[in-house]
Amino acid sequence: MFNQLGLIGCGLMGGSFALALKKAGLVKRVVGYSKSPSTVEKARRLGVIDVAAESALLAVSGSDIVLIAVPVAASEGTFKSIRHLVNPGVLFMDVGSTKRDVVDAARRVLKERLPSFVPAHPIAGREVAGIEHADATLYQGRKVILTPLHQTDPVLVQKATDVWAAVGCQVLKMSPEHHDAAFAAVSHLPHLLAFAYMNAMAEQPAGQEYLSLAGPGFRDFSRIAASDPTIWRDILLSNREEILRQSEAFRGALEELERQMRDWNGPALEALIDTASASRSQWQLNPKSTVSRL
Question: Distance between CA atoms of 195 and 200, rounded to whole angstroms?
């Protein structure tokens, strides 16, 4: 049981975490802060937070657990604003979709206070953003990746593991570098492709007509293109090297399919499709895993 959650960033991810802690009976009080006063007030009215803080530092004051749920580009500024209250024994976590840039910012700013920070990335979310979409069940049955550093307090790593497990997550641990390489492949590149595909459709003279004929397959394929632009701008830029590496691999695979089509090579084309089909058939969402890549 925590006495107080300091929530910095009252949006979908942070709000859902606050509600999940409340539902599990793990926190007595939630103090929240966001840059927008109207957002904080809405979070209070919805019962996501109990007290509205006027600054990130005031949200941290008196808290024994702190969640930083801001865009990854705002991480360094947030660390600077709360640095003086990053005290030993208090669990500080983030929810950023990239980890190397967040960890580098923490190293630069927190310095001797770095052991209190446990970087985290819950693999959950929706295409809609905002506190009004916060959901206490958002994290149930999902994975969360912790990327602790050599300096990170092992007691706080265990606390982080316990709290995420208590809200329904399967907890995995890996290095920030391995995390960013993996998620460039399975999350960041798919978003990049979805954005490019929708833009390509919109730029065609008959694009709107084509879209009017689309069915469930198109809906499922293009769903992530509706994601928050600001968040994904930051993710694509912060993890650009790994994403561009994955994009290059994708281009090679696409060119191979195109080559077989141009050559009217049906057997080779079918073999490539069969490989993809078999890989997709074998894939499972949220399989149990004990992978640790630290």
Answer: 9
Q: What is the largest CA-CA distance in the chain?
A: 69
Partnered with residue 143 across adjacent β-strands are 170
Q: Which residues contact 48 (CB under 8 A, 6 or more apart)?
A: 10, 15, 18, 19, 30, 32, 131, 134
Question: Distance (Å, rounded) from C-alpha 230 to C-alpha 238?
Answer: 12
What pTM, to 2 d.p., does this model score?
0.88
Strand pairing partners for 93?
Answer: 67, 118
Tally helices (H) and strands (E) across the chain.
13, 10
Q: Which long-range contacts (CB under 8 A, 24 or more apart) does 276-280 make?
A: none
Which tokens hold the place of 51?
């007290």
What is the identity of the amino acid at 246?
Q
Residue corresponding to tokens 């833009």 = 199
The whole-angstrom distance between residue 253's C-alpha and the CA centroid of its chain comes to 27
> Phi/psi zone of residue 198: left (φ > 0), alpha (ψ -120 to 50 degrees), beta?
alpha
- Bridge partners of residue 257, in order along the sequence: none
| pLDDT per residue as tens, the chain (294 positions) | 899 999 999 999 999 999 999 999 999 999 999 999 999 999 999 999 999 999 999 999 999 999 999 999 999 999 999 999 999 999 999 999 999 999 999 999 999 999 999 999 999 987 778 999 999 999 999 999 999 999 999 999 999 999 999 999 999 999 999 999 999 999 999 999 999 999 999 999 999 999 999 999 999 999 999 988 988 999 999 999 999 999 999 999 999 999 999 999 999 999 999 999 999 999 987 666 555 566
Strands (E), 120-259: 120-122, 143-146, 170-174
Please check whether residue 294 is in contact with residue 175, taking contact to mean a CB–CB distance below 8 angstroms.
yes
The 8-class DSSP code of residue 169 comes to P
| Whole-angstrom distance, CA of residue 83 vs CA of residue 23 | 30
